[in-house]
Structures are given as C-alpha cells and as structure tokens.
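mind reviewing this stuff:

——
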Amino acid sequence: MVIATGGDYPYYVQNGSRSELQEGSAVIGLIAGAQNEKAAFLPSVKDVTDETLELLDSCDLLLMDGTFWTDDELIRIQGGGRTAHEMGHIPVSGAGEAVFQCSVAKIFIQSTQTRGCCTENAAPAPETGI
C-alpha cells in the first residue's frame, strides 16, 4: 500500500513541473506485508495524524523519518536555515513523539546521510536518553 505522508516537492523539481503534479503525492510511504506481518517505511513525514497512528498500530515494524531530533536542529548547528517542519520533516522529539504511543517496533532513519541516531558512537538524544 502506498500512502501520502505530506510535504512538498524538493527544490530541484521545477516550478512548471510542480503545477502538473498531483497535490499530496510529493512524499510517499510504503506499507508492505506477508504472512500476517506488515512493515511501514515512512522516509519523510510532515505530520503525524490520528489516521497515521491507527495505520501504524496495525504494523509490526516502522522505519520512520529520523532526520531531525528537534525542529530547530539545523538552525542551531549551522547558525541559520529552515526548521525541520519548513523542510517537511517532523522532528523525533516534539510532535514526532506521538509514534512512541504505537505498539509497533520503531527504527528512525535518515536516508541522505549515514548519521545514526542510536549507534554505539552516537551521543544520546538529551530528551529521550536513547
């Protein structure tokens, strides 16, 4: 099953092309399963709705956007820029914590870099201790 997860098209999609594309199809997630087990892959999530939480509760594994811990992470690190929400990412802390209520096993991913949020060498996130 393919689901829309919100968000906008990346900057490299030209304005002319944007007008021809279906709204809500910029970022998608995938739910796949076999033999009564399901996994959800949500590489970029702008918001977690009640509908999303209900869908995730039916899964056994969740691979979810873990690009940012906080909404202002990039601004704090680089001294400027956009917030996580402005770039179409929900931070793991804050509104993203809603997924912790789901019974599904969770793995937070960041698909454009190899920065692990829960590796042996990574410092724990201060808000969560993980």
